C-alpha cells in the first residue's frame, strides 16, 4: 500500500475529488493548509503598499491506496489539479506498512 499526499489549489478540490472517485477511491482526508514553495509566496499590493504573502492557502488530500492503482491515482490528480501556472502543487507517495479499520479489526488493503 502507498499513501498519496497531494497539495493543490483549493478551487481544484472538487474536480480532483471527482477524478479520484472515477478511479475507485471511496474515501480521503482533506486538510486546509498554508505554505510556499520555490517562489516564496506571492506579492500583493494593498492601498499602494506592496507586501509579501508568505503562506499561500492550499488543500492537502491524503489517500491510502493499493500498489496496483497508485499510477492511476497520480495521473488523476496531476491531470485535474494542473492549471499550468505557478503554485499548482505537489504530490508525494510514501509506503504504508499496515492499516487497521478500528471498527472491524480488518487489516491491510481490506482496511482501506
Task: Describe the SSE topology.
Elements: E1 2-8, H1 13-22, E2 29-35, E3 42-46, E4 49-53, E5 56-65, H2 70-81, E6 89-95
Antiparallel strand pairs: 1-5, 1-6, 2-5, 3-4
Helix pairs in contact: 1-2
List keywords for this structure.
single chain, 112 residues, alpha+beta, Alpha-Beta Plaits, 4-stranded antiparallel sheet, two-stranded antiparallel sheet, 6 strands, 37% strand
CATH architectural name: 2-Layer Sandwich
**Class per helix and strand makeup:** alpha+beta
The total number of structural domains is 1
Tell me the span between the first and last alpha carbons: 9 Å
Q: Numbering strands along the chain, what is their spatial order in the largest sheet?
A: 2-5-1-6
- What does the overall shape look like? elongated
Oligomer designation? single chain
Average pLDDT figure: 91
CATH class: Alpha Beta
Low-confidence sequence ranges: none
Explain what the structure shows.
The chain has a four-stranded antiparallel β-sheet, with helices on one face. It has one domain (2-111): 2-Layer Sandwich (Alpha-Beta Plaits), CATH 3.30.70. The N and C termini lie close together (9 Å). The model has no long low-confidence stretch (mean pLDDT 91). α1 packs antiparallel against α2 (70-81). The radius of gyration is 17 Å and the shape is elongated. A hairpin with a 2-residue loop joins β3 (42-46) and β4 (49-53). The longest helix is centred in the C-terminal third of the chain and has 12 residues, at 70-81. It has helices at 13-22, 70-81, and strands at 2-8, 29-35, 42-46, 49-53, 56-65, 89-95. The protein has two helices and six strands, in the order βαββββαβ. By secondary structure, it is an alpha+beta fold.
Amino acid at each position: 500500500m502507498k499513501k498519496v499526499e497531494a497539495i493543490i489549489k483549493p478551487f481544484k478540490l472538487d474536480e480532483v475529488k471527482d477524478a479520484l472517485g472515477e478511479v475507485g477511491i471511496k474515501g480521503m482526508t482533506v486538510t486546509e493548509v498554508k505554505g510556499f514553495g520555490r517562489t516564496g509566496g506571492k506579492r500583493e499590493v494593498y492601498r499602494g503598499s506592496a507586501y509579501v504573502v508568505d503562506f499561500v492557502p492550499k488543500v492537502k488530500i491524503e489517500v491510502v491506496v493499493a500498489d496496483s492503482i497508485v499510477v492511476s491515482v497520480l495521473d488523476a490528480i496531476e491531470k485535474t489539479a494542473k492549471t499550468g501556472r505557478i503554485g499548482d502543487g505537489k504530490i508525494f507517495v510514501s509506503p504504508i506498512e499496515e492499516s487497521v479499520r478500528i471498527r472491524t479489526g480488518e487489516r491491510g488493503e481490506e482496511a482501506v
